[in-house]
Amino acid sequence: MALGIACAGTGLKEAIALLDPMTNDPVNFVRQGALIASAMILIQHTEQTCPKVKDFRALYAKVIVDKHEDVMAKFGAILAQGIIDAGGRNVTLTLQSRTGHTNMLAVVGVLVATQYWYWFPLAHCLALAFTPTCLIALNSQLKMPKLEVRSNARPSLYAYPPPLEEKRREEREKVTTAVLSIAARARRRGVSKVTDTNEKMEVDEVKEDEKDKEKKEKEEKEKKEEKKPEPPFEILQNPARVMKSQLKVI
After folding, report:
1. Where is this region: Disordered (predicted)?
2. Taking Cα atoms as reference points, which of 79, 87, 92, 81 lies closest to residue 123?
3. SS3 of 47, please?
């Protein structure tokens, strides 16, 4: 937790390298702390800025869903998922103001939040350390004019992470039941013989799902081929989501 607080929002590779083996620790509360700390460090980082983000996001989802996982580790993964996507991915975790001074409110919030082990609602105090990452231009009348801002970086470098894809349950196709048309058998009193009847089987036509799937796959391949090269800059509208590391290229 101390490592996560000290390196919050930095995406420091050395810190992640220390936390990575702790996520497989046999002690449950160690795993819990490692998951939470990793989210603090990786908040607002993409695969372009820190490749480990993808692995940790997958780890959070795996621990949360796993029925055989311990409750403490699950709680840590849930908190980690909330921290890394905090504020709709529009805020970062920092203990300093933009001018570089210590933000006492954020420090107190983190201090109280670390006592979640005693009373879990204290974890909400971590929100006091969240700072919005945005650029809002104002004029002399403190009004927000319409203007464009150029970011001299590839759009994917500071883009939103891709949304979580819900795993759709594969709907099992209903097996078409064979309908037997049997001629009514003559049942008359005193008649012992039963006439043979021809049994016909009527099967519904099979849906052309396979053809549709092939068409979709072809369309997806064509779309991938038609992708244009990524531009080296991006034009943002006021107000814009601008991360701390992105301010250098604005």
Report:
1. 191-250
2. 79
3. coil
Which of 8-17, 104-113, 160-169, 218-227 has the least mean pLDDT? 218-227
Cα 242 off chain centre by: 20
Residue 192 resides in a domain: no
CA distance 229 to 130: 35
What is the chain's Cα-based Rg?
30
- Per-residue confidence (pLDDT) for residue 3, from 0 to 100: 92
CA distance 92 to 125: 15
Rounded-to-integer distance, Cα 202 and Cα 178, Å = 6
Q: Counting beta carbons within 10 angstroms of the beta carbon of residue 41, is it exposed (0 to 12), middle (13 to 18) or buried (19 or more)?
A: buried
Alpha-carbon distance of 2 to 24, in angstroms, equals: 19
Residue 159 pLDDT > 90:
no
Q: For tokens 């043979």, name the residue.
A: 196
- Number of structural domains (the chain) is 2
Mean pLDDT, the chain, as a whole number?
82
Give me 181's structure tokens: 């048309």
